[in-house]
């Protein structure tokens, strides 16, 4: 979590900072083989130098970015969880619970789907 310390310290809203830290700590604990890093000023996790999932903080939500393939694959479940999404990210409102089983499935999907990927992003 040390890699995220400066990012977290720069989140002004204490509740947003706490929620973001909670999610990042969960990913770190649940997927210890993923590499935590900051890139493009955002926290993310990689596997064999390929992007798995990233997060960003907005005024009204925590954004989760599993790439377009992850959004497409889980679109129905994202909606069922009560989240809205774009082609590239899922918005978890600050006052909504985090659907950790769904987040786990998205991460596992990307790890499996990108096992042989030799680039950072999908092509």
Automatic annotation (TrEMBL):
It holds the Pfam family DUF1801. InterPro entries: YdhG-like (IPR014922). It comes from the Bacteria. Residues 16-111 form the YdhG-like domain. Gene3D superfamilies: 3.90.1150.200. This is Iron chaperone. It comes from Peribacillus castrilensis.
């Amino acid at each position: 979590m040390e890699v995220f310390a400066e990012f977290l310290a720069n989140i002004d809203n204490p509740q947003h900072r706490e929620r973001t830290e909670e999610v990042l700590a969960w990913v770190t604990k649940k997927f210890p083989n993923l590499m935590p890093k900051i890139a493009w000023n955002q926290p993310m996790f990689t596997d064999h130098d390929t992007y798995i999932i990233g997060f960003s903080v907005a005024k009204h939500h925590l954004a989760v970015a599993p790439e377009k393939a992850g959004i497409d694959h889980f679109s129905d479940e994202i909606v069922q969880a009560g989240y809205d999404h774009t082609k590239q990210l899922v918005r978890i409102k600050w006052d909504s619970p985090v659907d950790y089983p769904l987040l786990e499935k998205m991460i596992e999907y990307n790890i499996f789907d990108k096992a042989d990927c030799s680039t950072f992003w999908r092509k």
